């Protein structure tokens, strides 16, 4: 939906729940090839990890009994889940920390998909957790680039086959490093190969 703020027009998602506008989230990247020429009409949102108040028009305010709504880059939190419109680095860390502090990963190998930044590269990864620890972080080696999927716009493919490095985890976890790269996990009676 087109939303005008000040003198600028944004291509936005308007999130609604129970006859209320919960949040307005703008596109950060605009399509400008093929049939899509969004840059003719819209401006990309440049303020990462920033929310501000957006005043609704008087007609909408009267109909919804709501005058303002969060506008920008963020997520919506419910009692039992988070709806993350665009992940921020801090929120990803918080989600992973919550999963590891609870009993979700006790006795079972869990795979959580999330973007991971290593150096200056952004990887689409599986974070493998077992018994409240991160066991390994595995990156995608082939990125989808057809149909609705355009992963190379945001992510880098991992090129180093059969190579593991130490990855420094953030301070909030009980461990400091984890294997990062292409590998497998060995148990007493089987191997788990991540692909």
Give me a quick take on this structure.
This protein has about 200 residues and is mainly beta. The chain is built from two helices and 14 strands, in the order ββββαβββαβββββββ.
Question: Are there runs of 5+ residues with pLDDT below 50, and where?
Answer: none
Strand order of the largest sheet: 1-2-3
What value does the Rg take, in angstroms?
A: 20 Å
CATH topology of the largest domain: Nitrilase/N-carbamoyl-D-aminoacid amidohydrolase
Helical content stands at 10-25%
Task: Label the overall shape.
Answer: globular
Number of strands: 14
| Number of domain modules | 2
Portion in strands: 35-45%
The H-and-E topology, N to C, reads as: EEEEHEEEHEEEEEEE
Q: Quickly count the helices.
A: 2
**Class derived from helix and strand content:** mainly beta
The CATH homologous superfamily of the largest domain is called: Carbon-nitrogen hydrolase
For the record, the CATH class of the largest domain is Alpha Beta
> What is the CATH-assigned architecture of the largest domain?
4-Layer Sandwich
Mean pLDDT: 79
Can you walk me through this structure?
- One of its GO terms (cellular component) is cytoplasm.
- The protein has 195 residues and is mainly beta.
- It has 2 domains: 2-77, no CATH class; 88-193, Nitrilase/N-carbamoyl-D-aminoacid amidohydrolase.
- It is 10% helix and 41% strand.
- Strands 1-2-3 form a 3-stranded antiparallel β-sheet, with no helix packed on it. It has a 3-stranded antiparallel β-sheet with strand order 8-9-10, with no helix packed on it. Strands 4-5 form a two-stranded antiparallel sheet.
- It is globular, with a radius of gyration of 20 Å.
- The model has no long low-confidence stretch (mean pLDDT 79).
């Amino acid at each position: 939906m087109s939303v005008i703020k000040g003198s600028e027009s944004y291509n936005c998602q308007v999130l609604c729940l129970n006859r209320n506008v919960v949040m307005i989230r703008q596109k950060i990247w605009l399509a400008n090839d093929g049939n899509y020429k969004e840059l003719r009409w819209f401006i990309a949102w440049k303020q990462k990890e920033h929310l501000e108040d957006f005043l609704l028009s008087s007609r909408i305010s009267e109909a919804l009994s709501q005058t303002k709504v969060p506008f920008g880059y963020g997520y919506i939190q419910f009692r039992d889940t988070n709806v993350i419109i665009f992940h921020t680095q801090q929120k990803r860390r918080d989600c992973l920390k919550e999963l590891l502090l609870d009993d979700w990963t006790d006795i079972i190998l869990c795979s959580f998909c999330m973007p991971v930044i290593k150096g200056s590269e952004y990887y689409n990864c599986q974070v493998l957790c077992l018994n409240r620890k991160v066991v390994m972080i595995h990156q995608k080696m082939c990125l989808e680039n057809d149909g609705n999927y355009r992963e190379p716009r945001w992510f880098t493919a991992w090129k180093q086959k059969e190579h593991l490095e130490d990855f420094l985890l953030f301070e909030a976890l009980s461990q400091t490093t984890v294997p990062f790269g292409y590998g497998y996990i060995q148990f007493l009676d089987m191997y788990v190969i991540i692909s």
